[in-house]
Structure formats: C-alpha cells, structure tokens
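Shipment paperwork, digital attachment
Item: protein structure file
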Amino acid sequence: MPRLLDVSDDVRAEIGDEEADRLLAGDNAPGSYDCTSCRTPGDTEQERTSTVLFVGDETAVLAFAHAACLPSQVVQVNEDQLQGAVQSLGAPGADAAAPSAEAPPAQAVLGVTSGLILINGDLHPALVVEPTGPISRPGVQSGGDDFLPLLIEQGFMPVPELAQAPRSLPGWSVLLAMGQLHAVLQPGTGGAPAQVAWWQAHQPLVVTEGWRAAANKTQTVLVFAAPVGSIGRQPREDLLRDALDKAAANGRLVAAAMPLAGT
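Attachment content:
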C-alpha cells in the first residue's frame, strides 16, 4: 500500500531511485514508527512522514519522522554517534569534540548544558556551550582565546543582556533525534549541500521532558556560548540563568536562535 512519505532529492540521491520508489510504494517502509525527533508514534499510512537519512563515515541509517517535526533530509553525523544510535534503536551536559575547519579547532572540548531560559516572560529551550579551555584560531598558536570572535564571524551575536531572544542564524540547526540531543549543525563548506556537525555528542545527550516539549512547541532552540570559566556546570536552571546574566554583563556571551532538528 502506498505510504504518505516525503523523500527529498538529497535522500533520493543517496539511496537511489529504485529504493526511493520502493519506499513510496510501501514495500520497504514501516506502517507505524517512532518519530526520530519527538519519539511519539507515527503512521506512514495515515499521516505525512519524512524520511531522514543519517550518514556516517561508513554507515547510513534511514529513519522516519512526522513531517511536522522534521523535513526529509540527509544529516551527516559522526560514525561513532551513528553506531550508538543504531545500538540504542544522564543529566544535562556532555563533552564533545569541537569540529569543523572554520569553527574552533578539532582538539578543543566543549561542554554543553541544556536548560529552559525565561526571556520576556516566555520560556525558551536553550543550550549553553562553554569550552574547557581557551580556543585559538586554527593554525594559530598564540595562546589566546578566540572562541567568541570565531563565533561572531560565523553569525553569532554578542548578548549584552538577556532582554530578548537572539536572532536566527541561517543554515544552522539543532538535531534532536530519538528524543535526545545529537548535534548542533552548521552549513557544509566548499559548496556541500548537506550540513555538518559543529558540535556533536559522544553519546546522545539526555534532555528533560519539559525542554523537549518546549523545543517541539517552538521548533527553535537558543544557543548561547561563552569562553572558558564564564558559566560553569550549574546544577539548577536558576543558577544557569544567573551565570548567563553575569557573562552577558561582562561582554562574554554570544547567542543565536536555531531551528530544531536540522534543516
């Protein structure tokens, strides 16, 4: 029976016309599935469904999502991350390697904390990114910390105070797959159509039900970043907000709004 599937041109190019046509005809597509974004049940026979292809270095995994949660797309991910997602088919905060030739150097380690941040009376799902040490420009051994200038060059905006939500950063997104946080994605370089990971979790990062519900509602995540020593690992969201306010007042905070789940 034909399925209500969306197969993007990028996904079709990766899996081939024959496989794409089989999916649309219902030969290889499941009837019911758990949405790779919100983790609630879906039905390819009853509701519009997106095909999402996760591609690692050696492995590719085809997943399904409500079309309202994610568009059909190809998402480049770390091979270890992809293998972990296949095998799995605590607390806020995780460490990961900072990727990308234009972002902080590959050997830098970033800490990421999730939390709900109150701005203008509204709760926003947010991620706070802070390195464990100073980050210099790639190829520069100055010993200085260029973390904020690098991010500003990529479109993040300085935050003098948390009075309003930051503006959207085109081409960037936050990938929430199988109900867990997997990566922050940036535009591909060299004309590549697919996004690449700017930050990715060594293992999927657990977020609270409240955070996930807010993210699914707004379809937007606020990403804040500060140099090492500015925020710290705060055990409560009120303390996290206090640390953000202090970093902003000291000129040590940048931010951007990103759509949920990687377009």
